[in-house]
Amino acid sequence: MSRGFGLVVRFTARDLDAVRGFDDLVRRTVTGIREREPGTLAYVVHSVPEEPLVRVFYELYADRDAFEAHEQQPHTKVFLEERHQYLAATEVTFLNAEFGKGPAQ
């Protein structure tokens, strides 16, 4: 049984203009993920109702190799290069799926 590999990333934009630019960059990135990454099981971008500058990503990959493949995709490289212009802070938490309901179980 594959246990999956995931992460939660909390991004805080500099201001409202920056969050709009960041959201546009994320939309373009997600298009590439949908089209080219079968090992990416979930890539969900959340807004936070009481924190308009915050976006929280939940990412779930079939395994660590699928995550590494994601990191090497052209659309991901563009995201990683361009995101800094919009952000005040980034917090990353890596996860190992243990049990639950979903594609990794």
From TrEMBL:
Organism in which the protein naturally occurs: Actinoplanes xinjiangensis
Signal peptide residue numbers: none
Statement: the UniProt record of this protein carries the keyword Oxidoreductase: yes
InterPro entries: ABM_dom (IPR007138), Dimeric_a/b-barrel (IPR011008)
Protein name, entry field: Quinol monooxygenase YgiN
Lineage top rank: taxon: Bacteria
GO molecular function, one term: monooxygenase activity
Domain ABM: 5-95
Keywords, comma-separated and alphabetical: Monooxygenase, Oxidoreductase
